Amino acid sequence: MSYFNNKVVWLTGASSGIGEALTYELSKRGARLIISARRKEELEKVKGNCDPSAQDSIKILPLDLTAADTLQLSVAAAIQAFGHVDILINNGGVSQRSLVMETSMEVDRKIMEVNYFGPIALTKFLLPQFSKQKRGQIAVMTSLAGKFGTPYRSGYAASKHALHGFFESLRAELWKENIKVTLIAPGFIQTRISVSALTGDGSKLNKMDDAQSNGMSVAKAAHQIAKAIAQQKNEVYIGGKETLGVYLKRFFPGYFSRMIRKVKVR
């Protein structure tokens, strides 16, 4: 029997990319899904693409991670959908393609609001229910940029590093309550994340990165991510040879520092 069979999984950022692929993967594995993103019509398309027999097991809950004053109500609505939540997958986020000196503070703040403050707010508001039921799991979509910074990703890397710090602390606090935390760090995956990435003035890049277009297929990434969550991994890296950067930085920091200056990231 699948680990996800009959479990209630709340997935943010479900309207496209990894979130969309995870919706299909988890639906096939028998999960009861609450899918969230800003665009209700896109969520309805994703739900419609799932097997007809799974339609009653998928609920749509639009939310905006930057609308801080609405997130507690969103958590209450998620719990009400099926009576409880077993797994929260914090997947919603935004990327960046701009030099530090060309990036406005407004862009840095928006990236932190979407990628960091939104996910930790949902987590904090959901924790009382997890604590009450004495179980729960939180999966967090960070990035390899959460393990090392690269050019043109300063705000994005900062937000993803922040997620690692927060959720590693949370894991250390809650292990006795049977609440698991899985950090997922994808590398280059074939999604449109670079197209919607923010540039220095806040406008979208509207261009597909070569590295992104040549990356791991989103379906394969979703399969590996679901497997890592089912195995309750503490941390997992998803992608190709770019994942080796984590180990290069750890064991050969000087070499890594010189290498990262030259890597093609746009």
Helix content: 40-55%
Specify the CATH homologous superfamily.
Answer: NAD(P)-binding Rossmann-like Domain
Which fold name corresponds to the CATH topology?
Rossmann fold
How much β-strand is present in the residues? 5-15%
* Oligomeric status: single chain
Average pLDDT score: 95
Main beta-sheet strand count, sense and barrel state: 7 strands, parallel
- Give the low-pLDDT segments: none
Walk across the major sheet and give the strand order: 3-2-1-4-5-6-7
From the alpha-carbon coordinates, what is the Rg to the nearest angstrom? 18 Å
Coarse structural class? alpha/beta
Q: Write the CATH architecture name.
A: 3-Layer(aba) Sandwich
Measure the end-to-end span: 43 Å
List keywords for this structure.
266 residues, 44% helix, Rossmann fold, 12% strand, alpha/beta
